[in-house]
Design brief:
- Helices cover about 35% and strands about 20% of the residues.
- The chain has helices at about 35-50, 70-85, 90-100, 115-120, 140-150, 170-180, 200-210, 240-265, 275-290, 295-300, 320-325, 420-425, 435-445, 450-470, 485-495; strands at about 25-30, 60-65, 100-105, 130-135, 160-165, 190, 225-230, 300-305, 310, 315, 335-340, 350-355, 360-370, 385-390, 395-405, 415-420, 475-480.
- The strands form 3 sheets. A 9-stranded mixed β-sheet has the order 16-15-14-13-7-12-11-8-17, with helices on both faces. A 6-stranded parallel β-sheet has the order 3-2-1-4-5-6, with helices on both faces. Strands 9-10 form a two-stranded antiparallel sheet.
- The structure holds 6-O-phosphono-beta-D-glucopyranose.
- The site of 6-O-phosphono-beta-D-glucopyranose has 3 residues, from loops.
C-alpha cells in the first residue's frame, strides 16, 4: 500500500496532505452518463485534477449507448456536478481546464456489430500509457465488454479494468464473471471496487488496529464480549427501485460493505499492507464465517421492509410506493448474528445491521468489551468498556471508560468517552472514497480492492442466508420509516442479553 507516512505529534492540530501526481492515463467510463459516473466518478476526477494530481494530458472518455457529441457530454457532467455537489467548490477556470480532457464516444456494448474502433481512436496512440476501463454498468455486461475490448485490440499491457458492484447476484454468477474477466485481464489487473474501502475512516481501521499497541492484546474473545456493525441510511431506494427490488439489502450492502468492515475488524495482522497480504487475511475471515441454516435463520437473522413513516418530520412513502409495485418481498433491512469460527473469535457474536429509511444516517463499529472479572466497588454498577468507531458522518473514535466523578460524595463512578473527533483534530478536506480508489487504480495499487476469491467467499456466505430464508420461509417484518428497523431486530439481541448501541 502506498502513501503510508506518519508525522510526529508536534502539538498542532493542523494536518497537511500532499498530492503526488500520478502518471498521465486514459480512462474510459462505460456507463458514462449513469448515476455513478455523474455523481461520483467525474466529480472525483475533477477534484484530483484541481488538486494537481492528474496531469493535463490525461484523457477521460465517457461512453454509453446514446448518440451525442463530446460537447453535449461535457454539458451533462457539468450540470450534474453543480446539482450534486455543494457547489461551493466549483471553480470555473479549473472546470474549464478539466473539461479539455473529457470526451465522449457512443458505443452500444450489447450490440454484436458495435463499432469499437471509434473508442480506440479516442485513446492515446501511446500504447505504453496506462489505460483504465471502468465498468459502471450492470454485471451481466462485464464479460461482454472485456471480450469487446480484447477483440478490438484495445487491451494493452498497461491496461486495467475496474468492476463496479454488484459483482454478480450469487456465488455462481460471481464465479462466472471472474472467469470471463480473467480470460482477458490477469487477476492483478482487475480492480473490484467496494467504495467503503476508500473511506478515510475505514482505512483508519487498519491504523487503529495495527498502528497502536494498546488494542491488540485485548482484540479477541478474551476481552471482547460482542461486536456490532451498523450501516444505517435515512434515504430510501430513490430512483434505483428496479435494481434494488431484485437485490435487497443483503446483496446490496451486506455481501460487500458490511462484510468488508467485518473483515477489517476481525482479520489477523497481515504480514504487510501489500494487496495480497491484506486480502489473504480478509479471505480467512470470510471462510471462517459460520453458515446460516434454515434451522437457525429465524434466531440469527431479521429481514425487514420499510412502511410509511416520518424521517426528520417528513412523511415518507412505503417501499412498495417508492418502487411502484403492489407486492414485494424484498428486504430493505437486515440484521444478522454472525459468528467467526476461529480461535480469536470463538464465542463472540458479531451483529450486522443495515437498512434504508432508518432514523438517521450513521455507520458505526462498536466493540463491546467484557466487564472486569471482579469489582472492588461493592454494589456500585460498573459499565464495561466500549470502543465506538463512527465511520460516518461526524467521524470519530470514542473509547468509553469508567472514571471517578470528582468531588465529594464518596466513590462515584461515571462512564465517559475519550473522544477523538475528526472535526476537532483534522482540517483537511475529506476526499470522497472514489477519489482515493481511482488514483489507486492508476497507481496500480490493489490493496483497497477485492480479490476474486474474496468476492466468491462473501457470496458463499450470503447464499447460505438466502437459501435459509427460502427454506424456512423467513418472515418479512415491517418497520415504519424513521425507526431503527423492526422490533424483531431488537428482540434478537435481547435474546442474547445484548442491545444495539
Ligand atoms: C451502495 C449501495 O453501494 O452504497 C446503496 O448500493 C447505498 O444502496 C450506498 O445507499 C451507501 O453508501 P454510503 O457511502 O452513502 O454509505
Amino acid at each position: 500500500m502506498s502513501e503510508t507516512q506518519s508525522k510526529p505529534d508536534d502539538g498542532s492540530s493542523e494536518s497537511q496532505s500532499a498530492f503526488v501526481p500520478v502518471e498521465a492515463f486514459d480512462l474510459v467510463v462505460f456507463g458514462g452518463t449513469g448515476d455513478l459516473a455523474r455523481r461520483k466518478l467525474i466529480p472525483s476526477l475533477y477534484h484530483r485534477f484541481c488538486d494537481g494530481q492528474i496531469p493535463e494530458n490525461s484523457r477521460i472518455v465517457g461512453t454509453s449507448r446514446s448518440d451525442r457529441s463530446g460537447i453535449e457530454y461535457r454539458k451533462i457532467i457539468s450540470k450534474a456536478y453543480k446539482e450534486f455537489s455543494s457547489g461551493d467548490d466549483y471553480d470555473t477556470s479549473c472546470w474549464d481546464d478539466f473539461e479539455q480532457m473529457v470526451d465522449y464516444v457512443p458505443l452500444d456494448v450489447a450490440d454484436k456489430d458495435a463499432d469499437w474502433k471509434s473508442l480506440g481512436k479516442a485513446l492515446s496512440k501511446n500504447k505504453e500509457r496506462i489505460r483504465v476501463f471502468y465498468l459502471a454498468v450492470p454485471p451481466e455486461l462485464f464479460v461482454g465488454i472485456c471480450q469487446g475490448l480484447k477483440a478490438a485490440g484495445l487491451v494493452t499491457k498497461n491496461s486495467r479494468v475496474v468492476l463496479e458492484k454488484p459483482l454478480g447476484t450469487d456465488y455462481d454468477s460471481a464465479k462466472s464473471i471472474n472467469e470471463g474477466v480473467r480470460a482477458v485481464f490477469d487477476e492483478n489487473r482487475i480492480y473490484r471496487i467496494d467504495h467503503y474501502l476508500g473511506k478515510e475512516t475505514v482505512q483508519n481501521l487498519l491504523v487503529l488496529r495495527f498502528g497502536n499497541i494498546l488494542l491488540e492484546p485485548l482484540w479477541s474473545n478474551r476481552a471482547i464480549d460482542h461486536i456490532e456493525i451498523t450501516a444505517a441510511e435515512s434515504i430510501g431506494v430513490g430512483g434505483r427501485g428496479a435494481y434494488y427490488d431484485g437485490a435487497g439489502a443483503l446483496r446490496d450492502m451486506v455481501q460487500n460493505h458490511l462484510l468488508q468492515l467485518l473483515c477489517l475488524t476481525a482479520m489477523e495482522t497481515p504480514a504487510s499492507l501489500d494487496a495480497d497480504d491484506v486480502r489473504t487475511e480478509k479471505l480467512k475471515v470470510l471462510r471462517a464465517l459460520r453458515p446460516i441454516t434454515s434451522e437457525n435463520a429465524a434466531n440469527h437473522t431479521v429481514r425487514g421492509q420499510y412502511a410509511r413513516g416520518k424521517v426528520n418530520d417528513e412523511v415518507m412513502a412505503d417501499y412498495l410506493t417508492d418502487v411502484g409495485v403492489d407486492f414485494s418481498e424484498t428486504e430493505t433491512f437486515v440484521a444478522i448474528k454472525a459468528h467467526i469460527d476461529n480461535w480469536r473469535w470463538a464465542g463472540v457474536p458479531i451483529y450486522l445491521r443495515t437498512g434504508k429509511r432508518m432514523a438517521t444516517r450513521r455507520s458505526d463499529i462498536v466493540i463491546q468489551f467484557k466487564p472486569v472479572p471482579h469489582s472492588v466497588f461493592g454494589d456500585t454498577h460498573l459499565n464495561a468498556n466500549r470502543l465506538v468507531i463512527r465511520l460516518q458522518p461526524d467521524e470519530a473514535v470514542r473509547l468509553w471508560l469508567e472514571i471517578k466523578e470528582p468531588g465529594a460524595g464518596g466513590m462515584r463512578l461515571k462512564t465517559v468517552p475519550l473522544n477523538l473527533t475528526y472535526a476537532d483534530n483534522f482540517t483537511v478536506r475529506y476526499p470522497d472514497a472514489y477519489e482515493r480508489l481511482l488514483m489507486d487504480v492508476v497507481r496500480g495499487n490493489l490493496s483497497l480492492f477485492m480479490r476474486g476469491d474474496e468476492v466468491e467467499a462473501a457470496w458463499k456466505w450470503v447464499d447460505s442466508i438466502l437459501a435459509a430464508w427460502g427454506e424456512s420461509e423467513q418472515r418479512l417484518e415491517l418497520y415504519q420509516a424513521g425507526q431503527d428497523g423492526p422490533e424483531e431486530a431488537h428482540d434478537m439481541l435481547s435474546r442474547y442479553g445484548h442491545k444495539w448501541v
